[in-house]
């Protein structure tokens, strides 16, 4: 799956059978990535696309040596399920 970082629209996105899937972000405090919305078209759900979008955003943050903020409920739940990545969360 090819996931691109569209910096102009502030989202990581990919094409799916039902259309575009994406995770939107804002640049937050300390230049972090505030991951605030995930969308996967209904036709493409259940294929771990949202998981892959989160992982791509995390890899970008790691590459830039910045943290993430889990504003989106999906992203927050994702971190609960993946405590090994908790060091990537910006603590308030």
TrEMBL record:
Superkingdom in the source lineage: Bacteria
Start and end residues of each N-acetyltransferase domain: 4-90
CDD domains: NAT_SF
Transmembrane portions of the chain: none
PROSITE patterns: GNAT_YJDJ
Name of the molecule in the record: N-acetyltransferase domain-containing protein
